[in-house]
Design a protein that fits this description.
Elements lengths: L10 E4 L6 H31 L6 H30 L3 E3 H34 L4 H4 L2 H26 L9 E2 L6 H6 L6 H36 L2 H29 L8 H22 L2 H20 L1
Parallel strand pairs: 1-3
Antiparallel strand pairs: 1-2
């Protein structure tokens, strides 16, 4: 992209979550603690699944990739927010803003598809247990994961292709702590009605459709389990409740931000904290503290580390 196409605005200024200094100090401490927790929690899941051979199954393979995407989503925005709160220098270049949006929608689109794949995995495991390892083979898992990343890339590229060459002549203030399409489009010097519709259609309607598809699929799955085995309902409900919680936490802010992309009350930037700090923490907690295999694997790894230290 040539700078000649960028127009007069070469950087944007983040207004952040608050201009009140004591609140900024609280947000700095809050975001630092939560980001460190996000990194440690998700890396723990990724390394546990990778290093423990007992967890080399489709469900944990997908779970490790979910943790990786959550870690990337949080790392894309939160360290910049922490740096801005600490230094008070809340600017980002035009190119940096475009790159942040591009990666954000790749990760968001990929996680959206990955949650669908995880729902499919649970359906096969619960309703077709004898065929589970055949259907969800390592080759199929890699194919589905690759498809998730490709769809995320296409989703992001299509949106950025429409907005990257918009003219900008000021103002250049973004009422948030990160770059995203609604605020980016709002600052353009041209009529943005079609762009607003494109954002709503591409991100908003897709988010809502996938959300309802997942919720309906989980309900159908629970009904199916209840018909065939009343004893297995409690186990299925325990497993699927974790998935439903993750789906609601991920899609809730997305639906609000993109279905209502230009609200008069700026609550969307506070809802974004759910996707960047809260959900990435809850995912490891939900999938580890409620999962016996994960807890046993962590105990095995910790005992191996302790024994290796004693030997050395």
């Amino acid at each position: 992209m040539n700078k000649a196409n960028y127009s007069e605005v070469f950087q944007f200024v983040f207004l952040g979550l608050s201009t009140y200094r004591p609140v900024q100090h609280f947000l700095l401490a809050f975001s630092t603690v939560f980001y460190v927790t996000v990194v440690l929690g998700n890396l723990l899941v990724v390394f546990t699944v990778t290093l423990d051979p007992h967890l080399h199954s489709p469900m944990y393979f997908l779970l490790a990739n979910l943790s990786f995407i959550d870690l990337c989503l949080s790392t894309l925005t939160v360290p910049k927010m922490i740096s801005d709160l600490y230094s008070g220098h809340k600017t980002i270049s035009f190119q940096g803003c475009v790159i942040q949006m591009f990666i954000l929608h790749i990760l968001g689109g990929s996680e959206m598809v990955l949650l669908i794949v995880m729902a499919l995995d649970r359906y096969v495991a619960i309703c077709k247990p004898l065929r589970y390892l055949t259907v969800m083979s390592p080759k199929m898992c890699l194919l589905l994961l690759s498809g998730a990343w490709v769809i995320g890339l296409i989703h992001s590229a299509v949106q950025l292709a429409f907005v990257v060459h918009l003219p900008f002549c000021g103002p250049n203030e973004i009422d948030s702590f990160y770059c995203d399409l609604p605020w980016f489009i709002k600052l353009s010097c041209t009529d943005t009605y079609r762009m607003e519709f494109m954002v709503t259609a591409n991100s908003g309607f897709i988010s809502m459709a996938v959300f309802f598809l997942l919720i309906v699929s989980y309900i159908v799955l629970l009904v199916t389990v209840r018909k065939h085995s009343s004893g297995g309902l409690s186990k299925a409900l325990s497993t699927l409740s974790a998935h439903i919680t993750v789906v609601v936490l991920f899609f809730g802010p997305c639906i609000f931000i993109y279905m209502w992309p230009f609200p008069t009350v700026p609550v969307d930037k506070f809802l974004a904290i759910l996707d960047f700090m809260i959900t990435p923490i809850l995912n490891p907690i939900i999938y580890t503290l409620r999962n016996k295999d994960m807890k046993m694997a962590m105990r095995r790894l910790s005992s191996q580390l302790l024994s290796s230290r004693k030997v050395s």
